[in-house]
Amino acid sequence: MDLSDCTGFEWDEGNQDKNLVKHNVKWYEAEEIFFNTPLIVNHDKKHSGSESRYYALGHTNTDRELFIVYTIRGSLIRVITARDMNKKESIIYGKE
């Protein structure tokens, strides 16, 4: 499934809280990167098991650069991890 086929996001309280507590990323910040450009998306073959996982490099509406790991369930994006980009990811993001 392509991101353009997605109709929204799927969250559970545990995941929303985990990203906030662990990485200080609010749920709406994680969603914002999917609506801003540039957005770099790649299949995460190494961490894909019973479902395909992807990672995205993007920025929020306040230009915070985030690294997001997500999967797609049905037509919904389910964020697994959201954190600030590390130096290497930021360099990659700046080149695109």
Q: Give the strand line-up of the largest sheet.
A: 1-5-4-3-2
Instruction: Quote the average pLDDT.
Output: 91
The biggest sheet, with number of strands, parallel, antiparallel or mixed sense and barrel status, is: 5 strands, mixed
Q: Give the fraction of residues assigned to helices.
A: 25-40%
Q: Tally of extended strands?
A: 5
Distance between the termini: 23 Å
Please give the radius of gyration in angstroms: 13 Å
Order of helices and strands: EHHEEEEH
Number of helical segments?
3
Return the structural class: alpha+beta
Which percent range describes the beta-strand content?
25-35%
What is the number of domains?
A: 1
Structural summary, described in words:
The structure is a single chain. The mean pLDDT is 91. The chain has a five-stranded mixed beta sheet with strand order 1-5-4-3-2. The chain has one domain. The protein is of the alpha+beta class. The two termini are 23 Å apart. Helices cover 27% and strands 33% of the residues. The chain is built from three helices and five strands. β4 (65-73) and β5 form a beta hairpin.
